[in-house]
Amino acid sequence: MSDRPPQPAGLAVRPLTPEQIHGVLTDVFDRAARCRLLDTGVAGLPAAPGHPQWLLAELGDVRVTGSCHRDRWYRSDTLPGAASGALPARPAVDPDTDRWRILEVLVFGHRAQIRLGERAEAGWISADAPGEVPDWLRPRDRSFLLQGWNGPGHSYTADARAPLSVTTEPGGSEAVLPVEWADFSGRHRPVPGGRTALESRGTWLTVREYWASDPATGAVGVAFHRLTGLSAGLKPTGPEIDVGSGDEIPGAAH
Asked: How many CA atoms lie within 13 A of 103 on its CB side?
């Protein structure tokens, strides 16, 4: 019996070369220009030239976020006017001298994600694999609410060019998010069958989940997830939930 976990269905992962890792860091942190690796793809994986890109980077001393919707990056470490507690006091990462500070760097768009590990000693790009996937293992798109206190005194868009937002989290800490901020709200919406759905608005992180099946037991579960974007407004993915019962409403996702 193999002790290796089952492979996620519909997923392709490719390791990056040292030159590709250096190129990602240079594009995002030094040139502050589009990540060329996401624009061109790797070894047959899909590319997304011209589409938005996002950054989530965990360093040993600070978290850096950013977005690149056109030609250049707008990052939290260069955001003017944000509170000092959310931003580092120096440029985020020098690709040649600062790798020791890196815990994890994620650069992603809707079609692919790049992950650099600790010290950027290794990196991978992941995307949908070509070919058909059985219905019960088909990747699923999810959206998760980014929590922040409602109201302009707590959460607001600080730079609309990219955009970047500053929000106070429920625990009291401050975060800079690479998305225009929208306070959470919900309303009841009638759907066919006499049921009522909760229609939600807010600020969302979208994720694609990949499933795997254990060959020994047949059990199916989420084996990998890939970040696909951030958005503000109407909840971008299903499912919709019945207000009365809490059950999923089949076919009611907008």
From this structure: 9
> Of the candidates 158, 151, 30, 33, which has an alpha carbon nearest to the alpha carbon of residue 86?
158
For residues 12 and 141, what is the distance between their CA atoms, to the nearest angstrom? 16
The pair phi, psi for residue 228, each rounded to 5°, is -125, -10
Cβ atoms 223, 212 nearer than 8 A = yes
Closest CA to 208 of 226, 224, 235, 231: 226
DSSP state of 38: H
CA-based end-to-end distance of the chain: 44
Instruction: Give me the numbers of helices (H) and strands (E) for the chain, helices first please.
Output: 2, 14
- Structure tokens, 171: 């625990």
Rounded Cα–Cα distance for residues 76 and 251 (Å): 39
Closest CA to 137 of 210, 208, 206: 210
Q: Which amino acid, one-letter code, is at 215?
A: P
Quick check: pTM over 0.70? yes
pLDDT at position 56: 96
H/E element holding 104? strand 102-108
Report, as an integer, the average pLDDT of 184-192.
82
Alpha-carbon distance of 247 to 87, in angstroms, equals 41
Q: What is the pLDDT of residues 75-121, one digit of tens each?
A: 988 876 544 444 444 557 889 898 999 999 999 999 999 999 999 99
Supply 39's token pair: 């624009």
pLDDT tens digits, one per residue of 209-240: 999 998 878 889 899 999 999 999 999 987 77
Q: Are 137 and 129 in contact (CB under 8 A)?
A: no
| Beta carbons within 8 Å of 229's beta carbon, 6+ residues apart | 52, 54, 108, 109, 110, 205, 206
